Amino acid sequence: MKYKKSNKNSKPTDEVIRVRTPNQNEREVLGIVETMLGANRIRVRCMDGVVRIGRIPGKMKKRTWIRVNDVVILVPWQFQNEKADIKWRYERMHAEWLERRGYLRE
Q1: Alpha-carbon distance 60 to 38, whole Å?
Q2: Structural domains of the chain, count
Q3: N- to C-terminal Cα distance for the chain?
Q4: For position 8, what pLDDT does the model report?
Q5: Distance of CA 60 to the CA centre of its chain
Q6: Is residue 14 part of a domain?
Q7: pLDDT confidence of 73, banded at 50, 70, 90?
Q8: Which tens digit of pLDDT belongs to each residue from 3-55?
Q9: What domain range includes position 88?
Q10: Is 56 inside any structural domain?
């Protein structure tokens, strides 16, 4: 009996099954990437109205490519509020879902 092989290069479906939302208990904030600064740093406009310098951690650096206008989750530093660590990057269809649900506001 033949089994159908899964194709690693297949495109994902357009339906959104599950979307990770920011956890307020862990101080997570949504933001939109404004510019790439280099050296694993990006400038992010956060939904709480603050423009922060985001640091891309080493485990995300090669696996997840972050570009301008991407929606990300970041955690502000406790001792410097203008800096933050990037936790998650949303794909385009997930970002559109967040915008429809009212999570992203200007």
Answers
A1: 15
A2: 1
A3: 55
A4: 65
A5: 11
A6: no
A7: very high
A8: 666 666 656 556 667 888 888 888 999 999 999 998 899 999 999 899 999 99
A9: 25-101
A10: yes
Distance CA(29)–CA(7), nearest Å, equals 35
The pLDDT score that the predictor gives to residue 42 is 95
Residues written for the chain? 106
Give the model's pLDDT for residue 25. 84
What is the rounded CA–CA span in Å between residue 82 and residue 87? 16
Per the CB < 8 A criterion, the answer to whether 28 and 73 are in contact is yes
The domain that contains 86 carries what CATH number? Answer: 2.40.50.140
Q: Is 52:76 a contact under the CB 8 Å cutoff?
A: yes
If DSSP codes are grouped into helix, strand and coil, which group holds residue 26?
helix
Exposed/middle/buried for 42, CB within 10 Å: 0-12, 13-18, 19+?
A: buried
Distant-in-sequence, close-in-space partners of 56: CB < 8 Å, separation ≥ 6: 40, 41, 42, 66, 86
